[in-house]
């Protein structure tokens, strides 16, 4: 459980990509009073996706849980309107929904970047990353946790880039959420996971079999890249 009081996290200006105007924003923690606004934004984002499989639609009951002391939630507000949400959800040791139950190493209490959404009009302002850095710092101040993870669709490049910017690596690729393929990103908050750049392999995003093979051989996905017009991931082994 976490016990984080309502607080202001950041402020600044962001650009609306529809009217090209700049707007002041406030970033603050969210609570259960914000549930209607969170659900409204969630539905807007889902309905504007070109590929609905990129973002899992949690039940309203689960979203409500994201706004309790089981999680830390940050929101970006423009003119009293919620335009961004990011949730860090804490899985207990016996939680079967913990993404790390699919891995082969032991885990403790895990902070899961479970939801990150931005209103379509305000994409391109790095809001995912800004919210992520703030709630990660806040959660670490409140109580130490060793494991940090997230589950991301292979084709969701913006979210993949966001996870890499938080020093996470891909440790697994497997079917989740009713059979949809997902990367499991991971970061050990107490250890450095530097990649050995002497043995780097590029794999196209749609080549799941090669990615799975490399992950099983001890490689980690650590960077998005492009080779001859093909987008993919760079894989490397951890430097010992």
Strand order of the largest sheet: 1-2-3-4-5-6-8-7
The rounded distance between the terminal residues' Cα atoms is 34 Å
Shape: globular
Number of helical stretches of at least 4 residues: 5
Query: Domains counted in the coordinates: how many?
Result: 2
- CATH topology category name of the largest domain: Aminopeptidase
Helix-strand sequence: EEHHEEEHEHEEEHEE
Average residue pLDDT = 89
Tell me the number of strands. Answer: 11
**What is the second-level CATH architecture of the largest domain?**
3-Layer(aba) Sandwich
Describe the sheet with the most strands: 8 strands, mixed
**Helical proportion, percent range:** 10-25%
Instruction: Determine the strand fraction and express it as a percent band.
Output: 35-45%
Report on the structure:
- By secondary structure, the chain is an alpha+beta fold.
- The protein folds into two domains: 8-192, Gcn5-related N-acetyltransferase (GNAT) (Aminopeptidase), CATH 3.40.630; 194-240, no CATH class.
- It contains five helices and eleven strands.
- The chain has helices at residues 35-47, 60-65, 127-142, 157-165, 208-216, and strands spanning 8-15, 22-29, 71-78, 81-91, 110-118, 147-152, 169-176, 180-188, 201-204, 219-227, 230-237.
- The strands form two sheets. It has an eight-stranded mixed β-sheet with strand order 1-2-3-4-5-6-8-7. A three-stranded antiparallel β-sheet has the order 9-11-10.
- Strand 7 (169-176) and strand 8 (180-188) form a beta hairpin.
- The two termini are 34 Å apart.
